[in-house]
Amino acid sequence: MNPLSLIALLPVIEIILLIGMGSLFGFWFTLLWIIGTAAVGVYLLRRVRGAFQIGRPLDAVGQSTAADSLGIFATWVGAILLILPGPLTDLLGLVLVLPWLRKLTFGIWMAKNLHTIVTRRNARGQVYEGEIVDVHKEHRVIRQVDEDRDK
Fold first, then answer.
1. Contact, 85 vs 57, CB < 8 A?
2. pLDDT, tens digit (0-9, with 9 covering 90-100), for 48-100
3. Domains in the chain: how many in total?
4. Burial class (CB in 10 A: 0-12, 13-18, 19+), 64
5. CA-CA distance, 71 to 114, in Å (whole number)?
6. Which structural domain range is residue 109 located in?
7. Around Cβ 86, how many Cβ atoms within 10 Å?
8. Where would I find the beta strands (DSSP E) of 29-149?
9. Handedness of CA 23, 25, 30, 33 (dihedral sign)
């Protein structure tokens, strides 16, 4: 399925999940869940904004690493997903916000996809047709024939 169509279906999926969550846990719990995750998302967004402002001088000095920047960016995206109402975006937001869960999820994804990442070839590569000749094997056969003739 096209990722763009999944993004278009996201509001429908979220509404269905919210209705199911409301019928399972009740209206007030669902409302508190939406407000609570939005509040956590706003808090994290403000905190990450401060980390971006603090990180700029570290980039100039060369002390900031790519992992720090990636973690800050993942927290920023996760905070935005937590602000959006819905259980699915909250789950994705939590995966991005919590470092241990982010590492675990990335590790599982890498374990499943490492083979395709490593063996992926460049599509512009050229294929040369031909046959492989084992020169050493032919040399051994010729040498064996010469030895048989000498006997």
1. no
2. 887 666 555 555 545 555 567 788 888 999 999 999 999 999 999 999 999 88
3. 1
4. middle
5. 21
6. 3-150
7. 22
8. none
9. negative
